[in-house]
Design goal:
Elements (H helix, E strand, L loop, with lengths): L1 H4 L1 E6 L3 H11 L6 E6 L2 H9 L8 E5 L7 H8 L10 E5 L5 H4 L4 E5 L4 H22 L8
Parallel strand pairs: 1-2, 1-3, 3-4, 4-5
Helix pairs in contact: 2-6, 3-4
């Protein structure tokens, strides 16, 4: 199955319009993307801490989530050895906080408002993933 060979991306966002735009942008990447979408921080933690599921290759996380905030999700997963190096992209419609900026293997981006801006954002996320993958010795189809 093609999805099993794809880059595993976990997108956590409660806004259906943002999910739609991000899904469209991620599927334009030059590598296959196996996308899983969750709508709140509590579900994200349950998914990420479950040993029965493979670790995603990339986490795209809205900072303003219901139940558990994106910042709290990030702080929690960084305490687990198997998740401490997971590349995380934090998305928000407001400026980053100091806590968000100080996490390693993380990128903070402002949410765009239209598909063209999402395409540019998606390109930045892809380059971030490629940089993280190169540091870990993983290619996943990234070119120099």
């Amino acid at each position: 199955m093609e999805a099993a060979a794809g880059l595993r991306v976990l997108l956590v966002d409660d806004n259906p319009a943002d999910v739609y735009l991000m899904r469209s942008a991620l599927h334009a990447w030059p590598v296959p993307v196996d996308l899983q979408v969750l709508s709140d921080g509590e579900k994200a933690l349950q998914r990420l801490l479950a040993n029965s599921q493979p670790r995603p290759d990339l986490l795209v996380l809205d900072m303003n989530l219901p139940r558990v905030s994106g910042t709290a999700v990030l702080e929690t997963i960084r305490r687990y050895t198997n998740l401490s190096t997971l590349p995380v992209v934090l998305l928000s419609s407001s400026r980053p906080t100091d806590e968000a900026a100080e996490h390693r293997q993380s990128l903070f981006l402002l949410k765009p408002y239209n598909l063209d801006e999402y395409a540019a954002l998606s390109n930045r996320i892809y380059r971030f993933w490629c940089d993280c993958a190169a540091q870990a010795g993983i290619s996943h189809g990234c070119s120099a």
